[in-house]
Amino acid sequence: MPDLSHGDDLDVAAVNSLRSAVMRLGRRLKHQRVDESLSPTEMSVLGTLARCGHATPGELARKEHVQPPSMTRIVALLEAKGLVRLEPHPDDRRQKVVSQTEQAEAMLEESRRKRNAWLASLAEGLDEDDWAKLRAAAPVLEKLAHL
Description:
The chain has helices spanning 9-30, 40-52, 57-64, 68-80, 102-123, 128-145; strands at residues 54-55, 84-88, 96-100. By secondary structure, the chain is mostly helical. Helix 3 (57-64) packs across helix 4 (68-80).
């Protein structure tokens, strides 16, 4: 495993370039939203629920790196918009389980479709060699995103 904290100039430059490109691309992707009334954090919570199925507010707070009181407010906003439902926890009556609604599922699918189309249109500007490199890098970037 490479130690990039004290790497040579090429490693430092590569890390800097990767950080900058990922941040810029992420900001541009955030503007490709279907529902402008949702904050990026609310969209992220819905995405997390889409991946994991359901979770308690405390689990969501940990996954989203926010404080539990903040997640309680976010869940309440999403519930008021009809995007999540709260159900009793099967093992602990003091807790609730949050899951997404069909409305949220449809909205997320439309959002993915819009963002994928936008990204595909950008990729059309790449030559075949760069596109092959990007396809090869995608699993590595996915792994990096989940470390």
